[in-house]
Design goal:
Length: about 375
């Protein structure tokens, strides 16, 4: 009985060894069947994850998508309660309207002053000239009346005229003296008005400064309005790109803090195949090499890709990657970024095979496993 058991054990062992040898031979033949200049590997499709979070704290008023949903750029994902933000925006808009009215009034006052100053200066210069003429005329008349009074007094002393004639001459001189004083006062007033008009350029500069202050206040109000509008817009979380929602971290009605993640989004236009290349072949791989990705979901459609990342450190082959090589061999991570993802057919998580062409004249071939 022991002899029979030993024979059976040896026979089974020989069968196992024969199968293993055949398997190794078959795999070696397959590897030899890969054209020279190509490297075959496999892995899973992954993508650059984008964390969707709110800039401000608040209560989640609406969640518009869930895990697994495909989204388009600018699509609404979530909305934070915006009651306070809308009130602040309304206040900022009222401040902008008030500041705009003040700036407009200052601008109109400056424009009016710029028109009035030259006219005021010219008008007062003319008034000074006219007042000087009136004064000269009044002084000439007073001098004439003074001479008339002197002659009247001589005639009265010689008894050629009566005292009434002298009184009339004195009254005329007094009247002309008053007119001269009035003309002198008028000239002084005209000169004061001219000096005041000549201060117009200084008033213009003051008005310009007031306009600048009003415009600065308007700009500050507009900045506050833009800030309030931006704060309101930030409460509506939109998708930055086309992709798939892979994770959701909050529920509707929850109060979240600023920066708390709500969704994780993977951009379908920035997918890559993460794979591992054996240490003996990593020297053939360099950035910029062309590659083709094959997926079981689309067996007849290869996807063009490019080597964009090569790991700088070797590591053991991850368990999820299937390879005919011994798992104890060190491997290097390589990422093949898709040149295009037409129709967003490839999605994160799909297993895929790849061929990397490290010789430019090598003919493309499908993966062989």
């Amino acid at each position: 009985m022991n002899i029979g058991k030993t024979f059976v054990f040896r026979l089974a062992l020989a069968a196992v060894l024969l199968c293993a040898a055949g398997l190794l031979l078959w795999q070696a033949q397959l590897r030899r069947a890969i054209p020279d200049g190509l490297i075959q590997a496999n892995g899973r499709i992954e993508g650059d994850a984008v964390i969707i979070a709110s800039k401000t704290a608040g209560r989640i008023a609406e969640l518009a998508v869930r895990e697994g949903d495909s989204v388009q750029p600018k699509q609404l994902l979530a909305r934070i309660d915006d009651g306070i933000a809308r009130a602040r925006l309304a206040q900022a808009q009222a401040e902008v309207e008030a500041a705009s009215a003040r700036a407009q009034a200052a601008r109109a006052a400056l424009a009016l002053l710029r028109r009035e100053v030259p006219h005021a200066v010219a008008s007062n210069e003319a008034a000074v000239t006219a007042s000087g003429t009136d004064l000269a005329r009044a002084e000439a008349a007073r001098a004439q009346d003074a001479r008339d009074l002197e002659r009247a007094r001589k005639l009265a002393a010689d008894r050629f005229v009566g005292p009434q004639f002298v009184e009339r001459a004195e009254l005329a001189l007094k009247t002309q003296q008053e007119q001269r004083e009035a003309a002198q006062a008028g000239l002084e007033r005209a000169r004061v008005a001219l000096n005041d008009a000549r201060l117009g350029p200084q008033r213009i500069r003051v008005s310009e400064a007031e306009l600048a202050v009003a415009q600065g206040a308007l700009a500050a109000a507009e900045g506050k309005q833009a800030e309030a509008q931006s704060a309101l817009d930030d409460l509506s979380l939109e998708s930055p790109a086309a992709g798939v929602i892979t994770s959701r971290y909050a529920n509707g009605g929850e109060v979240i803090s600023a920066g708390a993640p709500i969704f994780e989004l993977v951009d379908l236009d920035r997918l890559y195949l993460k794979l591992f290349v054996p240490e003996r072949e990593i020297g053939k791989v360099r950035r910029g090499l062309a590659a083709r990705i094959y997926s079981d979901a689309f067996p007849d459609q290869p996807f063009d890709a490019t080597v964009r990342y090569i790991g700088s450190r070797a590591e053991f082959t991850p368990k999820e990657v299937q390879t005919p090589d011994e798992r104890v061999k060190l491997m290097y991570e390589v990422r093949l970024y898709l040149d295009r993802n037409p129709g967003h057919r490839l999605t994160p998580g799909l297993p895929a095979d790849a061929m990397i062409r490290w010789k430019e004249d090598a003919a493309w071939a499908r993966p062989r496993w």
